[in-house]
Amino acid sequence: MTLKMDVAALQEFLREVFPQVSDDFQIDAVGENSITMRLHVDHRHLRPGGTVSGPSMFALADVAAYLVILAHIGPKALAVTTNCSIDFMRKPAAGVDMICEGRLLKLGRALAVTDVLIYSQGQAEPVARANLTYAIPPETINVG
Amino acid sequence: MTLKMDVAALQEFLREVFPQVSDDFQIDAVGENSITMRLHVDHRHLRPGGTVSGPSMFALADVAAYLVILAHIGPKALAVTTNCSIDFMRKPAAGVDMICEGRLLKLGRALAVTDVLIYSQGQAEPVARANLTYAIPPETINVG
Amino acid sequence: MTLKMDVAALQEFLREVFPQVSDDFQIDAVGENSITMRLHVDHRHLRPGGTVSGPSMFALADVAAYLVILAHIGPKALAVTTNCSIDFMRKPAAGVDMICEGRLLKLGRALAVTDVLIYSQGQAEPVARANLTYAIPPETINVG
Amino acid sequence: MTLKMDVAALQEFLREVFPQVSDDFQIDAVGENSITMRLHVDHRHLRPGGTVSGPSMFALADVAAYLVILAHIGPKALAVTTNCSIDFMRKPAAGVDMICEGRLLKLGRALAVTDVLIYSQGQAEPVARANLTYAIPPETINVG
Q: A80, B50, C116, D94: most buried, per Cβ within 10 A?
């Protein structure tokens, strides 16, 4: 399957659509059914003790799922998250970026299913895992 | 079961432990195995089109689950979220608070299970539902 | 909203479509956005120690979600489960039926969202909770 | 990490503990943090139209998660499923085994987190994905 958006196109899309958070997120790589992103962790993402907040990791998982779908269907899609299940497994390391490896497991006419693993940069064991489903409006699937 | 923290104690705890977000969240009521909270929606919680962001609703669900547990075990607990599954069902209304109704379904020695419904104020049908599991460190269950 | 199938119609539908398991499940009540069902627990549902198996409870949650949706859209729907998240919270009691209280939280054009609580008959605290999403094929929503 | 149970030991354990279903499940391979299993699909697992039932796929995911944990902690563990989130993505193929690829993502003192992909034999795209959390009783972690 040919990608409809590359790293530069996804990063530009993010800047246009989510200007208030786009500086937090960087797309490292995108490929067939896969994406690698990072969250530039700063004080807004932290909880007492220096740990990255759950909502910040949820946001990273959500944007990675969104962008790996858009890479395959194009920038015009009004896809929305319908479900996310996330497991927080380990305490994030302090003072480093969080890396998110996402997979597109299904791209159907109406639903797309993804999963992600989230790591603290430099650590081998994942901090969190999540799976997310997006609903793709019928009219958008052909226009990307 | 006697509550170990009332609305005022929970609100004060939130202010001490999460000063950067505590103004966003207001506890309306707490009772046996139940809590009602609200998110004061402002521009930081919005996405293009005026909808409340997924991470903001996740954060509301997470804090409601946390506080209904603390109401039953006391303020010293280092409880951490281990799992959350959330369904986004309807578009939130613009310009109103989000209300969260939480239930404590199980308070075990090691795990607590909760679920929540999230509404836009003034609407009868829920915007989102979530279930969250918290791990309770062994040493904290007796100290509340 | 008027129900399109009552208890008798749902039970008959179950008998026609799932003859191999329909004797296991009994519908106690159905109403607007709600259903009460039971699993007649026998040895096939048990694990060593007399506990009801996880797959048996999953099956009960799944059929309750399915039938509360069909009660609202009619018997012709080819609805399929797309997601289930289930928490097992307590050990089921031995030798009694399991009761399932289901709610229809959203009935959209393409997706229906439900949640359930599962009890051992005679016990106040739930054994399990689950939420299930069903996909409703476009052509079936109008034909019920 | 050295495995405490190999394929033969896991298969024998399954036969002893779950005699009523052990013939359904075959362990193909087990390694560090990974397992491959299969469900021998027969008429008991089918739904009308020849599709494999949701509870049968749930059972396959659950046993794979259980056994990859036991491979690492030994056969005496009384581990129990606390949470499963499963996505059904595609219709299973008729008349073939289902293959389950499981990963052990975290083995903590109290909780183990796993995820699985389920395939119809001979097909490249997964039929289902699931993540499962098991609680490990404190006394069993050291005895395996």
A: C116
